[in-house]
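Listing S7. Sequence submitted for prediction.
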Amino acid sequence: MNSCLYQMLSFKVIAIKSLIWLLVLYSLPTINAQSNPLNLKFLGTAGWELSNDSVTILVDPYISRIKLGTGPSISKEDNRKSYIRTDYYESDTLLINKIIGKVDYILVHHSHFDHLSDVPYIAKKTGAKVIGTETTTNILRAYGISDDQLYTVKGGEDYQFDDFSVRVIPSLHSALGKKKYFDSRTYTQPPKAPLQIKDFIEGGSLNFYIRFENHKVLTAGSMNFIEREIQGLQPDIILPGVNFSRLEIYNYTERLMKATNFPKIVIPAHWDNFRVPYGYSQESALEKKIKPFIEEVKAASPASKVIIPVHLETITIK
């Protein structure tokens, strides 16, 4: 009897130990998810710094925010140099040096100045690899960026890198000028640098679907998309453009939320006045663009959480 009792107790101890090990193993993914969160820093316009413990990616890093033109977007309190579109573009290298540190990759949606113009300096400064259209990479070649740093894409590519993967998605530019905007120009060879501001042409538009260890992020550089190209994607985070030109697109927010399977987190971009420096008031943009967009998301996808980004502040998603 004592021998039988001893054997029964031994089996119970082994069973309990096995159960404990199973619980530990099942808990490991949760531990890993918490140990490598995704950090998103809003750089303004369509610009982001996305980073985790393994990799840092910039998206459309437009830091200089030049004082362009004389329209209502210009602040009387802004004493910086004024530019017009025929002026040669000049990056604010001192500001870039303060804000941008280590960078592994730069993704560029299209080649307009408010998306690409600071990339030549950042790519030289950091040695980062750049993914963009033929126009984007030819502009960078004009500024002396080596082919070793450049990946030319057109949409449809799905690339695996060491610490992330990225699907390149064909897209459309915003319907500017009351839907009159159309520009089919491209650079098939490097243009002459430096470029005038007007010479940063669109050159085609893209979205990026970036897969990190624990998160999938869909980025946008404009207030537009091709519905069939994003259907079936399941990002848990989307970074949509929400400037006024979204209103030129049929059911923009509703269609976007449905096509991306009603993502958990929505962080709007390309809504700020990017002709004034960081630190200037964005209250008008928040009131006129962000508040209506939040209501649109609530109606289309009540379970989604909208996070309003602040310039140069980091949002951490575990």
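Caption to Listing S7: primary sequence and predicted structure tokens for the chain studied. The first helix runs from residue 2 to 35. The CA atoms of residues 155 and 168 lie 5 Å apart.
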